[in-house]
Request: fold
Amino acid sequence: MDNTLKFLEGSITLKFKKSKILTPLEERILTLYDNVPLNKYSFDDLRFMILQEFGLSYLIPMGLNVLKENPLIESAYYEGDLLSAVIKVDKTYWLENKEEYNKLREILRTNIILINSRLDMKCKTDRELLSNIDSFNQIINESNYKYFEK
Reply:
């Protein structure tokens, strides 16, 4: 997709105008949101913006396409950091987006052996990722299960 999030969703600049000086985090968000077409996002840009929960209706499908090919891709910091970002998205998003929820659930189901074999339980980020997978899987237990069936 050769459009920016600003083109697709409108401006967010006003949300950051509380002070005249932007933090580096705010600068990166605005640069990606306003100036970088989605097809130019790096895996790290995708991870970063998903964690900030901007443009999820565009970025989650992009992230799922990446994760389908490599669920433990390292976008910047550690193996599985993109998966971790996607899994941490607020459950409200998943409750409102059945198709994406089922796609991620299928990615996890078909790759659980790979995920378990590659993660080191001595590593805090790996333990957190597995915990976040468990939390994601609980969404269907907290809601109407039939809603999520294909």
Summary: The longest helix spans residues 98-118. The chain has one domain: 41-148.
